[in-house]
Design goal:
101 residues, 2 domains, 4-stranded antiparallel sheet, 1 helix, elongated
Length: 101
């Protein structure tokens, strides 16, 4: 199921003791098109890059973090993954031809 950014959706939230759930409204803040532009890049590849990067650095704006790693599925090319500062929300991902270790 795909959601649009800023769409209000109803999702089941668990109670603190996890004995029950209640459906509550939630706001979709991340964009769904981060990986849609490059269908050959999977979410699993991006997660691997973030968990085991060759290099990591914050972007100059301080709102995002960048991660680089070699991905065998891309023919050994280096994949750059850009996340928000939470280091979980994928903002962008692409093969980085200019990567220098």
């Amino acid at each position: 199921m795909a959601f649009e950014q800023w769409q209000v959706v109803v999702v089941p939230f668990p109670f603190a003791d996890r004995t029950a759930r209640r459906r509550r409204p939630a706001l979709v803040v991340s964009r769904s098109d981060a990986l849609a532009k490059r269908p050959y890049i999977t979410r699993e590849m991006c997660i691997r890059v973030v968990r085991q990067p060759l290099r990591t650095e914050p972007q100059r704006d301080g709102e995002r973090a960048r991660f680089w790693a070699v991905v065998p599925e891309l023919g050994g090319r280096v994949l750059r993954v850009v996340t928000l500062v939470d280091r979980r929300t994928i903002h962008n991902a692409f093969p980085d031809r200019r990567f220098k270790p």
